[in-house]
Every structure is written in structure tokens, then in C-alpha cells.
Design goal:
There is one protein chain. By secondary structure, the protein is mostly helical. It has one domain (2-242). The protein is built from 13 helices and 2 strands; from the N terminus they run ααααββααααααααα. It has helices at residues 2-6, 9-18, 25-41, 44-58, 83-104, 110-126, 138-151, 158-168, 176-188, 192-198, 205-221, 227-230, 233-242, and strands at 63-64, 77-78. The chain has a two-stranded antiparallel ribbon with strand order 1-2. Helix 5 (83-104) packs antiparallel against helix 6 (110-126).
Length: 246
Amino acid sequence: MLLMQIAHPMVAESVYDHSYVFKKPLKRLFRTLRLTLALVYGTQQETAQALHEIEMAHRPATGHLSQGVGKYTQGAAYNPRNPRQAFWVQATLVEGAVTGYETFVGRLSAADKQAFYIESQQIGEWMGIQRKQMPASYDAMLDYMQTAVVSGEVAVSEKARKIAPFVTGQSWPGLNMLAHPVYRLSVALLPEAIREQYGYAAFSPLEQRLFNGLQATSRAVLPLLPGFMRYMPPYLRAQRRLSGRR
């Protein structure tokens, strides 16, 4: 998901120039996860606080491309609050969640995907994207993502390739043993065109068999786990609120 986000050269440039991902990659990862979960499962107060933090982080994260890439020329302006740029991030969150679920949990119906996409548009609106600026359906969103890659609107830049090791775990301090499986799992979920632009090798036959085994195990075991092991705490708290329990 994060590799898909920074595949957009404007997003990569913004992260490269304004984020602390290089100095504190784990802190940056957990902050992103915390804010995203607050938007989805938080109380009104938690959601408002998360939106404020995102706005404070995005406000100074503007500038110009240091070199041309894809359809963009050197000097093109980037801004996280630009609706077109923001929607790419929104789309990767939705597509990434669906792909991850279908890979490791189970299939989703077309109706489920559409409902999830429509609900997710609320987050897009919070990010300053008007509903009319978003594709009307989940399938239309996928078409937009494909077109963005083909047209060069999304093209992996040199800065994205420099950020990637800090996203995939290859540069996480003290976690070298975990880096390779995290990195290869990240690569497995990338569309082929994006994977090739990053310069990642395709799965070897052995890796593919291992991945297939992990996928089958995950799909078989996850439904058997108790809720406190299967779901993240923000989701469980939201469920308790909805059921009226303390």
C-alpha cells in the first residue's frame, strides 16, 4: 500500500523532502497506522484530532519536483492537499485494503467492495476531495488507477526508490531478520508494472510456493481466531461503542 502511494512522483517527492521516514521509519509507519485507524474507527474527538494532525503535517509539505518523471516536468508543483494527488493516496488505501483482505482472509463480493468504497469516500472528503472528483464506483476507481499508471501520472521516481527500503523494512534498525519477508510480501502485492518500475524481481518458484502456503494458512486460521487476536484494538473499541457496552 505504501509502495503504491509513493509510486506517485508527487507523493514521493513530498515524503522525501518533508517526512522523517529516513531517520525514524518505524515511528513514521506507526503514526500513519494510528491516524488511519483513528479516521476509520475513532470517536468524533479522535477523528477530529487525527484530521488536525494530518493537516499540520500536510500544510508545509509543498514544493516542486527536482527532476522530471512520468508526465511531469522538472519544477512541477506538488501539494498533499491537491485533490488529484490526494485521491491517488485515497485510492491506494481502498485498493490495498481490499487486496490484502482477499489475499489473506477471503474473497469479497462486488457489492461488498462497492459498499466499502462508497463509505471510504468520507475520508476522501475529509482530505479535501469532493465526491464529484472521485470515481462513482470501485471498478471505476480501479480503472482510474490503471490509467494513471499507463499515462505516466503515476511513475516510480528515483526518490521513491530511495524511500522504498524504509517502507519495506530493509532499512529498519535492529530488524534485519524480518526485513526480507516483509519486503517480499510488499512486492508480492504490487501490480507488475509498478514492481518493474521499482526494479524488484518477480517471485522465484520457491518464493511463490511459500507465498501460496502462507496465503492458504492465513485463510484457514484467521476465521478460527478469537476476536481479541483477529482484530485490532481500535476496531474492538468501536464495536463496543456500537453495541452500547463500556
